[in-house]
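The aim of this short unit is practical: by the end, you should be able to scan a pair of folded records and say something sensible about each. We start with the first protein, listed as its amino acid sequence and then its structure tokens.
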Amino acid sequence: MTGRITVVGAGSWGTTVAHHLAQQGNDVSLWVYEPDVREAIERRRENPVFLPGVRLSRRITPTNDLRDSVADAAAIVSAAPSHVVGKLWEALAPVVPENAIVISVSKGIETESLRTMTRTIQEAVGPGHRLRLCALSGPTFAGEVSIGLPAAAVVASNDSEAAHWVQDLFSGPAFRVYTGDDVIGVELGGALKNVIALTAGVSDGLGLGYSARAALLVRGMAEITRLGVAMGADAKTFSGLTGFGDLVLTGTGELSRNRTVGLRPGGGEKLSEILDGMKMVAEGVETTKAAKHLGEREGVELPIIEQTHRILFEGQSPQAALEELMNRELRGEFA
């Protein structure tokens, strides 16, 4: 398959993906929401709001016209924040090519419907419109991938041919892609790790130390795995790139938006004050709501995620949350 690639969404990761694919020799149409950002990319070859300092490939054509951006596209990368994906794809439904390969790289879950991104996309375009859906996720910071530092990810699809096509499309000297078929596991791993990474930030903000952070990450992954398996995912997915790999990066890396948001409640700031000062989305905040509701729906115990929800939305102090977690009933590690 040959032809132009479209990336829908010009945040830090969407812009990075467009730049990476252009450097791989593809012509890329990049849909940009903000007119001033589109103009900056077109004139200065830079996204000064979401990816400052990176000179973008001239094979990227930015546009504010959503429907025109996908016309005759060989593949469409869905890179918008999770809370707007449904509305964008409802708008794209009349014009998206039949049997298009669609690669979701957004890491989130719809708060109201509790749908993953590939399911959101398919339901937005309707049952009569067949898409070849893939989910790509892994431990990738936009700031690093955009300047060619090595990274790896996994693409999962029920369509093996589409997954291997995406693998070839994305793979290059500094970006290695593996394939899989556990779509829901890949999507849940990429989304839910943001909640635990945010909680790791709270731990660091309290000054609890590296031992506490390590325990939190491991026990957090146990919660993600329990919930994922209850929803039909393969447990081994969560030991891979989109699971523990992404959690280690996001829960410890200085470039992590979710960890940074968590640091500040640990220091006493209110969530509303933190979010008001942010230009980029920290997906873990809204995903915390979705994760709590998914746990209730599936009957899965999620003590760390529940305490994170209480800190963010119910006025619980981080110190009280720590005390509750440490004083839970003792049990076997794999009980």
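Turning to the second protein, read its sequence before its tokens, just as you did above.
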Amino acid sequence: MLKIIIDENILFAEKAFSHLGIVETVPGRFISNQLLKNADILIVRSITKVDEGLLRNTNIKFTGTATIGTDHVDLNYLKKNKIAFADAQGCNAFSVAEYVVASLFYLSVKFNFNLKDKSIGIVGVGNVGSKVAHFSESLGMRVFLNDPPLERGGDPRKFVSLNEILKCDIITLHTPLNLSGIDSTLHLINKDKLDKLKENTILINTSRGAVINNNDLIETLRNKKIITVLDVWENEPEVNLELLDRADIATPHIAGYSYEGKANGTIMIYDSLCKFLNVDKQYDFQLPVLQNPVIEINFSTRFEDSMNQLISEIYPIADDDKRMRKMAGMSSSNIINEFDNQRKYYPVRREYNNYKIKSTNLNETIKSVLAELRFKII
């Protein structure tokens, strides 16, 4: 019978995969070459480095990652050794886009600005970036797109240079971490780029920590006010405490951690593995229905204030930030444990489309915005 090693934080792991073989769930950082000696299938998240060091002299035939990124996987090694591979691209795209929306409404209240007065530059417009662009347009922002690979590939959308993006009021990063080549994104945002940002630019990173040179960002923040939203960190789970202190919103790589996002990741890998094994799917993924999906809200205040109140009832991003700041003053080892635990025990967060909005004073503009954000209106 097949032996399947799965990261213990993958939703539905044991229940979904048990009919395919003997399932052993393991903390992602403890998956080792020795553990895989007698295993056939490996399913991981981004914290497990999948390379020759992990897979050498094992019988692994299939590797899946329940994530949208693959920078932790040596794809060339897998191909060379004829190990099948599957990822979960797009699984949590709505989750990340909704995180960006939540952060923008939170900041619009904190710093008293209207989103319709802002321009937003989106770097990377694949699954996630495209949804961020759609949401941003629905909120009345001027949207600018940058994605050289898509532009070269003939994508019909209008793209601008990175230098044009740097002029925007809001910049949000949604690229993979490419370490080399023409489309390298390692330290894509460095001192040179940061120097070009105007005061009070909002910089959001939900992609990979090393897309921004964190040391350069710290140096910039010492001398210039850049409003920063950081969900990912260079060298995570180690977190630079000065950068944590200077960030306006800080979270532990959970932008994509909606319940739906995690479930979709499992479903996509499950489907791929069943196809690889040529067996019928048996597990029925049923997500729990919300018991109280109706939110009553009065839209009599400023739009941003009302929307922040609404979204905070669904996803209080300030709570994630508060938990993250518990790391201040911790030792390096304690920071690592705290970072992992905050992800492991992350509260259940459901996506916007699960909720119904009830209000007596919705105008057509607000109704349109709510619909574009996937809320149901009753």
